Amino acid sequence: MENIINIEVEDRDGTTKTVEVPTDINLSLMEILKASEYDILATCGGMALCATCHVEVLEGAENLSEPEDQELDMLDTLPDLTDSSRLACQLRLNNSNAGLRVKIRGSLQ
Of 61, 80, 89, 107, which cross-links 57 as Cys (Cβ 3.0–4.6 Å)? Predict the structure, then answer.
């Protein structure tokens, strides 16, 4: 089972859950969170245009791809931006992301 990693997701209410992620189907973190029944609007469908999939990376940021300009521009519009904010739709997970910890911050409207 080399193509399965575990990541830890903290929801807006503080509850934390381990989510199993298949790494051989190239899903974004946003798609994984939605499939895991987290409440994420993803209004723009993963185009880095709405920031409703805003997550704070608590651990493992060094193994994620660098944000592109479009993601950075969108993050700049957020009132609750942190140094470790990312858009989940822009994060494609692979085996090096095992142990990633994120907190869901995106708005629900």
Answer: 61
Cβ atoms < 10 Å from Cβ of 89: 29
> Could you give the CA distance from residue 98 to residue 75 in angstroms, rounded to a whole number?
24
Structure confidence by residue, pLDDT tens digits, 15-38: 999 999 999 988 999 999 999 999
Q: SS3 letters for the chain?
A: CCCEEEEEEECCCCCEEEEEEECCCCCEHHHHHHHCCCCCCCCCCCCCCCCCCEEEEEECHHHCCCCCHHHHHHHCCCCCCCCCEEEHHHCECCHHHCCCEEEECCCCC
28 closest CA partner among 2, 12, 47:
47
Q: What is the pTM of this model?
A: 0.94
Q: How far is CA 36 from the centre of its chain?
A: 12
